[in-house]
Design goal:
50% of the residues lie in helices and 5% in strands. It is built from seven helices and two strands, in the order H-H-H-E-E-H-H-H-H. Strands 1-2 form a two-stranded antiparallel ribbon. The radius of gyration is 14 Å and the shape is globular.
Amino acid sequence: MCRASVRLILKLAPPSSIVPVGLRSAEAATLVPDEPLEVRLQAFHVVSATGEHRKGPDALPRLLDALPGMRPVAAALRRSPVAFGGAAASYRWITRNRGLIARFLPSSWARPIP
């Protein structure tokens, strides 16, 4: 599920605008030094070029800012507690059910990302 999500994000993002980093990597440990591996693996993370770190639902607006056409959605998440609450609840549901959801994804989407 995680790799499939990253693949989709990379397809939507302008070339080289998002650099995926495996959460088990030494680079991830450097980017998010205050979180042990087991904590890092519980959510997706966005680290800006300036080192600002967001994770889980709090990272959604920053991620959406990087995707063409999604800035209005990011702005809505920042301005509206109702919109953010809905997005956060959806994120938590997907996170809890990612194993189930992954069963319906093509196996090719799970291959490692180069």
